[in-house]
Amino acid sequence: MFTGLCAFPLTPMDEFGTDDRAYSGLIERLINAKVDSICVLGSTGNYAYLPREERARLVKLAVEVAGTLPVMTSVGALRTREILLAADDAQQAGAQALLLAPVSYQKLTEEEVFTLYETVSRAVSVPICVYENPGVTHFDFSDALYARLAELPAIQSIKLAGGYPDRERCIDRIAALRASLPERISLGISGDAFAVPALLAGCDSWYSVVGGLFPQLAMTLATQALNGQRERALTSNQALDPLWRLFGKYGSLRVVASAAVALNLVQEDCLPLPLALPDRQARNEIEQVITQLALA
Amino acid sequence: MFTGLCAFPLTPMDEFGTDDRAYSGLIERLINAKVDSICVLGSTGNYAYLPREERARLVKLAVEVAGTLPVMTSVGALRTREILLAADDAQQAGAQALLLAPVSYQKLTEEEVFTLYETVSRAVSVPICVYENPGVTHFDFSDALYARLAELPAIQSIKLAGGYPDRERCIDRIAALRASLPERISLGISGDAFAVPALLAGCDSWYSVVGGLFPQLAMTLATQALNGQRERALTSNQALDPLWRLFGKYGSLRVVASAAVALNLVQEDCLPLPLALPDRQARNEIEQVITQLALA
């Protein structure tokens, strides 16, 4: 579950519900590309915007469609009690791993976050991946907190924020965490632009947004980097610079959603308001880049 | 509604529900202190952690208890559709104003935020207070966005984040916004430590956390500052420095919750997990300060 390419598909939705057919279609593309695992209802899958019942239903649907492909799902929520219910739902639906970010409204303390993971760890029977994403959770994990979390048997992977705290220190941090954390803890990288350098620096897994829509592309990069084909992987990655720049400019969610619309994989209304696709000019820019990179 | 002291009470809750008796008791203290208005289910009232039904019930209860005292309530949520439902509920419950923060998981764009306020403005018949709180919403309002929002008739107040972007520029910003925005837009300040300087600089209202628990204290400060008793207000404010330092150290919510427990106004379990009261040492520190300031 926690090695190789884990692809994060969109959950197309409008104000009235989710588009289950388009959602299943996106998952089928991932099966066909032979990704190593998928994570439905990640940040890219807009888990935070969906009520409990819809989340439970969508995980069940993903497990049915995915067949033997391992499925992870996010169980993050503002309250511990909601997280515990989402974890129950996800396990009953057949999810093989749970992704948990310290979602917050009021900024959380280190002790609150540790207690949260400890509580959830004790309540579940499938492994947990700790989800670091300061851009949305506004919580910074210290190395000391990771060391404490790594002692909880349910915790088996950490999804690190790519390029955090900056490009250079991100790579140093991977080396330092790899040296200090037990071998059994898989280190994964998100923030697609940083995936290749991170995999070359020792990460075991790529938790990938782009892989959720363009799985072949992500598989190529992941395979090259994980096989230690350093120069080749770096060259492949550099070719994607125009895409990574769009991610930085509009946010990866808006870019992959715009691309999915352009490819007729999802309907125009695919994000939950107030989130919206960028304006026409930006979408033209996105369409040009996916054409230029032969992704269309 | 949008002038003077608006007090923000806690909503005591544990994992099983809210403590309605303690909640009503906190509101009664505010009536007795003759505050100008109250805002139930503000950030201090943990609105973000409560499901729709509980929010609707608590606003109704507040309006009943408050009698002739004007009641505002927060209608913030991650999705526009939830905000519209919360606004309907709040109006039906008798709320006289709606507080709306651009709550986010994915970082919002300026255009998304404008569209959100425009949509809600069109749907409501009571005034809206725009809620700036980058610490929890991670959105920065530009002066240009405020100018656009001020053209929406429903928007009648802006709740500015005190000390933002820093102590000095916060004061300059109040002067600049006061000069550029129409007179009909009330400017209010939150971030209690910055209230006195902000009121002296021209803010019309103090949206106050401390006022939700110690309304007499806040009324004294607000009255001095709004009556232009500059030196007196600044001296009163300086005396509260130990309290403002605790707010900075532990977060105002954890400090007022700890104080409310110490005063036997709420039960020990009063915050929604993963949020928790600080450790025993911090709580002793908080209790010492409220005793020292004769607030106990």
UniProtKB/TrEMBL annotation, chains A, B:
Residues annotated as the enzyme's active site: 131 (proton donor/acceptor), 159 (schiff-base intermediate with substrate)
GO cellular component: cytosol
InterPro entries, per database record: Aldolase_TIM (IPR013785), DapA-like (IPR002220)
One Pfam family hit: DHDPS
GO molecular-function term, one example from the UniProt record: 4-hydroxy-tetrahydrodipicolinate synthase activity
This protein's UniProt keywords: Lyase
Binding residue positions for pyruvate: 44
Keyword Lyase recorded: yes
Keyword Transferase: no
Family that this chain belongs to: Belongs to the DapA family.
Name the UniProt record assigns to this protein: Dihydrodipicolinate synthase
